[in-house]
Amino acid sequence: MNARTGTLFALAAALVWPVMVCLFLGGHSPTPAALIPLIVLVLAYSAVHLAVLFCSGEPRLLETMFWLFIYLVAGVVPLAQVKTGLRPNLLTQDTLVHAQVIVLVACVSYDVGHRLDLFRRPGTVSNPRVLSLRRLQLLSSVSLIASTYYIVILGGPANFFVSREDIGNGLAQAGFSTQEGSSLVVYNLLIACGTAPVLLCFAGWLSVVLRDRHSRTVGPCAWLAVLFAFNVVVNNPVSSARFWFVTAIVGTVFSIPRLGRRFFRTFLVSTIVTAILIFPYSDYFRRSDRGEILVKPITYTLSTKDYDQTTMAANGVTYADQNGHTYGYQMLGAATFWVPRSIWPSKPIDTGVLIGRTIPGAGTTNLSSPLWIEAWLDFAMLGVFAMFVAVGALARRLDGNFVRLAMKISARPTLVQVLLPFLAGYSLIVLRGPLLQASANLVVIVGICLVLCPRRERD
CB count, 10 Å around CB of 458? Predict the structure, then answer.
């Protein structure tokens, strides 16, 4: 893919949307003078990175997801909100510029970490962790038991095709409260253990069967069929949170070996289009009393749906101005997510809920707290810089290993080939926040992959 194609991609991503919003779609609402230039700068900054990824065609999935998220929630959506003037739950416009500056610092810090290569430089791994068939069989059995229990306590498979609201109600009736009480840890872990293991085991068997024709026997194919059926129930788009379903799709698709550069480019473009045109409507299955889908102008849909990251970042700045920084207290809560509140009554709550309590009439606790505001609320700009330098360095390390192995076919996938696609999909949940809420599934995903891939092959 030549430089001309990459330039056209960058120009299309960086200019088409601003031109549509600012010229063809009419004027814009009153906003702080510096806001629009900052939004366009972040939009162009992320678009250039996406163009580089598009030209290379290398499946650098963590890097791709990061810049896609920045492009959408800190570029496309804020411009739509400038056009419509709709920013639900915004406390004051005075902090919008500050919030956009925080995003820009996060982007630059990510680039610094990515280029410094702070972790061990990617190279040939002499003794990689390789997926073990014996462990995959054992964990598949355990995952089916866990998912069966999850299905039973919710009243059977049919209840997974109604709405996500009914899933929460079913868990509450079974004694697993969704409130901020002591059972919230058990609630989150139950969902994680009922959904993540069967998904990872399915991807593991899929990778094995597609890599090695000698593995295409009755046993592996039977595991694949049974796990697929369970995933249709517990990880379908009706009962699953949207970002988790995206994780399932990305993780499963990129566990398929040797997809090629053309596929990655197609994935990149289609993801951008889907995120703008389709994702805002995918909350249709959230409630059981849903009506018809009302198609409205793109700018209105993006302004009023669930892309509230810019608004919540601005509210986070307002919260810190009024209450001060938390100096690691919120991140301590995320690190100790497994500690019940019955043991630690003063345990930190989700940052989105913490900020949301200061919003009059918010009416919901399902509010995001993007990773940059999590870092900023704890340690101001120094926290943002340190956090995203580390994130950028880690992304380079893991993506580098994955790219080197992406086009190589071996009988068994390595740890990075099993783990990274799911980490990439789940990184959207981590970036969206709250971090405390995202921790349980993240630990389950990493833990399962480490169990599946021992240091030495023992089959």
Answer: 10
Tell me the residue type at 171: L
- Supply 313's token pair: 């970042």
Nearest to 93 by CA among 109, 104, 78: 78
Q: What is the three-class DSSP state of 243? A: helix
Cβ–Cβ under 8 Å, residues 372 and 106: yes
* Total residues found in the chain within this entry: 459
**3 state DSSP class of 174:** coil
Helix %, strand %, coil % for the chain, to 5? 70, 0, 30
422 vs 433: CA distance, rounded Å: 17
pLDDT at 266 over 70: yes
Which whole-number Å values give the CA distances from 459 to 130, 411, 452, in the listed order? Answer: 10, 12, 12
For the cut 90, the answer to whether the pLDDT of residue 105 exceeds it is: yes
364: Cα within 13 Å, side-chain hemisphere:
8
pLDDT at 95 over 60: yes
For residue 245, the number of C-alpha atoms closer than 13 Å in the C-beta half-sphere is: 16
Contacts of residue 163, Cβ cutoff 8 Å, sequence gap at least 6:
238, 239, 285, 286, 287, 288, 290
**Mean per-residue pLDDT over the chain, rounded:** 82
Nearest CA to 280 among 302, 250, 299, 311? 302
Q: How confident is the model at residue 125 (pLDDT cuts 50, 70, 90)?
A: very low
Q: How far apart are CA 212 and CA 223, in angstroms?
A: 15
Residue/partner pairs of 360-366 with CB below 8 Å, 24 or more apart? 362/89
Q: In the beta sheet, which residues pair with residue 414?
A: 130
Per DSSP, helices labelled H in 154-281 are 164-173, 184-211, 218-234, 242-253, 261-277
Query: Cβ of 308: how many Cβ atoms within 10 Å?
Result: 25
Report the amino acid identity of residue 311. T
- Phi, psi values for residue 130, rounded to 5°: -120, 145
Of 212, 214, 208, 232, the closest CA to residue 418 belongs to 208
User: What's the token pair of residue 440?
Assistant: 């349980």
3-state secondary structure of 74: helix
Whether residue 412 contacts residue 365, with contact meaning beta carbons closer than 8 Å, is answered with no
DSSP state of 75: I
- Per the CB < 8 A criterion, the answer to whether 18 and 83 are in contact is no
- Cis peptide preceding 434, ω within 30 of 0: yes
DSSP element (H, E) containing 71: helix 61-71
Q: pLDDT by residue (tens digit) across 356-388?
A: 888 876 666 678 889 999 999 999 999 999 999
Q: Match 């915004």 to its residue by tokens.
A: 90
